[in-house]
Amino acid sequence: MTYRQSFAFDPTPAQLSAAAKAILRGYGTVIGDQQAENIALVALVAARCAVEPTPAVGPKTFLGPWESPGVPPSYSTVVRRLYVRGYLGDDADPRDVAGASVLSGFWCKNETDRLGYNPVKVKAPAEFESLNISEINSYPTHIIDRRIDLLVQRGDL
Length: 157
Prior knowledge:
Layout: H1 3-6, H2 13-26, H3 33-51, E1 75-76, H4 78-84, H5 94-115, E2 120-123, E3 135-140, H6 141-154
Helix pairs in contact: 2-3, 5-6
């Protein structure tokens, strides 16, 4: 279903602007034309994005760089998060990555235990095959992100 199919009419920015002014006036807030137009444009873009179809995703056959199969939803691995956040390139040396991820892995393991989560062992990314590393831990994504943020603040990344 497209945006146009989901509504009986396709509101113009002027119609949305007038509606925004009327709604806010009902709450005792008076806004100018420019503010109303900005609100209307944001609402229009948000509405159009909200109803655009999402392509159906079938069984995953391709694994991206530094990606491990079998990672549960809302979990990730240290190396995958480093890659996704732009701190690890496709051509990074697996030995360097393994060494760096071990230290963050210890921190993530301790934090995961402290917060009552369970790390989940998953198959290691293909990049680690040359090092005979077959399994690595995955942790809740927000814990890994906190670790990466700390490393960035310290200037280590």
